[in-house]
Amino acid sequence: KEPVIAVSIGIATLAMFSLLLSPYNKYLGMINWAMTYTYLVLLWDDGAMPDVPSHPCDKKGPSLE
C-alpha cells in the first residue's frame, strides 16, 4: 500500500545481497583467516612469579637482562 516502505525494503534487501556477493568478502575472509587475534595483556607480578617483572617498565627477569 505504501510505495515508500516497499522501495526502502527493496533498497535494504539489495544492499544486503550486494554485501554478501561482493568480491571484497573473499579477500576479507582470507585476511581474517591468515591473521591471528592476539591482544596485549599486561601481567602484574604478585610475588609468586620470579621471572616476570613487577611492572612492565622494570628490567627484570632472564630475558630482559
TrEMBL record:
GO terms for cellular component: mitochondrial inner membrane; respiratory chain complex I. It is a single-pass membrane protein. The chain crosses the membrane at residues 6-25. It is found in: Mitochondrion inner membrane. This is NADH dehydrogenase [ubiquinone] 1 alpha subcomplex subunit 3. It comes from the Eukaryota. It comes from Syrrhaptes paradoxus. It holds the Pfam family NADHdh_A3. Keywords: Acetylation, Electron transport, Membrane, Mitochondrion, Mitochondrion inner membrane, Respiratory chain, Transmembrane, Transmembrane helix, Transport.
